[in-house]
Amino acid sequence: MKHSKYLAVGSAAALVVGLAACAPTAPEPGESSAAGGPSDATLSIGTTTDVVNFNPVLGNSRTDSWVTNLMYPHLLSISDDGTKEAHVATDWGYVDDTTGYYEIRDDLTWSDGEPLTAEDVAWTLNAVKRDEAPGTFFGQLGNLETATAVSDTRVELTLTQPDSSIIDEIGFWGVVVPKHVFEPQGSIADFANDGSDGGWVGMGPFVMSDFQVGQHYTLERVEEYPLVDGGVPGPAEVVYRVYPDVNTEILALQSGEIDVIANALPPAQVEQLSSTDGIQVIEAAGLGYAHLVYNMDKPDLANALVRQALAHAVDYEAIRTVVLQGQAVSTGSSALMPVLAKYYDDSVTEYEFDPELSRSLMEEAGYTADSDGTFPLSFRLIYSLQDSVTSQWAQMVKDSAAEAGITIELQGTERNTYLSMTNEGDYDIYAGNFAIMDDPVTNFALSYLPGGAINYTRVDDPELNALIEEGMVTFDEDDKIAILREANKIVHEQVYDNIMYTQNLFFAASDEWAGFISKPSELLSIVNPLSLASAYPVE
């Protein structure tokens, strides 16, 4: 499918954490495993947060993505090992090192009957770039100069410099919106797309029909969806219902109030629900990681010795054993995870849990403990209350830091508040996880370059910047691997990111439904568009 020597590299290898895979195999693009065909049934799904943005180029929460992905397509999908797969695009690659392209399907139609063409793709890319629509999508477009529809089915991207990852990453992370609906609204960054001007126009298996904040988001089946076998989605409706936490979702699933839990199961619930009558547990590959990030805009945390002290004050193995129930593995405190087999460097090892070393580093940084052995400073750690796993290990981080005389104050908030605080830099320490970190160069650019969309450390390191930028313009795989490994050593030594573990994830659904197709991460899992379009009630 991809022919050019300029193809992006950096595909991940499959991650196994010692648990037998029970997810069905994804079909080829345009096919599904649906055996039941269209039904009159409603598929109800639990979530723990409301939609923040109905505009898919702005969405920054999982619920945003879960809902808008059912209406707005991506050019590419992803496999369990991180490689990209066809979706709206059938072919993609590079004409030369500063020109990329996508060939798209010619049989797709927006829900108002207008055809989806390369002009929609080009307009979306140019509008997000022009209006600097904040979010991960915009963060992928740094080296895009312009996108041009050269035919109804081909769009070409002119780049400001060589970028060996941009075509795969835009294809996967970027969505396509209807130009004829979004262009009249002015700035794409300001369009709420909340249905108040006559409803929604999408090109997915479902389209929004009604919602009530804090209650539900209802989407109705479209009658023509060529990306699923048979051309018609299975459920007549998909309804996302909002619950306060995953435990309430589990009770709703057990009572039959919902059919699927969108959130990943807490590790402690996996074995129990696997043996519960009427419930199936489905595994999704993990391409992300959990981490702690120290905000270098805060004077104390600008000191590398303090960040190193904090890194050595975490009992990583205890967290993985107690909280993750052994369903997680160490990354070696490395941003190049073991799943990224070509890039992984086992010479970068996990920060040792050593409270006495932490104390020595704090003293070297110029701090003196009081008579109780506590240093005269404290750090505010934020996390999402809806993330039950992080909520548990955040307390363990606080407790182990106290052994080193370091005070951490926990601030758990509702998820959307947590996301807002993250974007505003309103934290000392950020605790959370990234769902998919599939391409090392792109991951490093977004995470560690100044202005990167997920640069939560607020790092601006000239040596690191130069290595990342060199990696972006390097197409030779061996050279790129060497560059990224060198960059990773800087991240590790300076503690620009403290990556704690990676894990496969597990999702629960009623066994009265079948046909789900698992995709990597909590972001996609079994609530990705192809999966929900393929689902059908068991007779």
From TrEMBL:
GO annotations of cellular component type: ATP-binding cassette (ABC) transporter complex; cell envelope; periplasmic space
Domain Solute-binding protein family intervals: 87-449
Subcellular location: Cell envelope
Organism: Microbacterium ginsengiterrae
Family under the similarity heading: Belongs to the bacterial solute-binding protein 5 family.
Any Pfam family: SBP_bac_5
GO biological process, one term: peptide transport
Gene3D superfamilies referenced in this protein's UniProt entry, alphabetically: Dipeptide-binding Protein, Domain 3, Periplasmic binding protein-like II
Protein known as: Peptide/nickel transport system substrate-binding protein
Molecular function, one GO term: peptide transmembrane transporter activity
Keyword Signal appears in the UniProt entry: yes
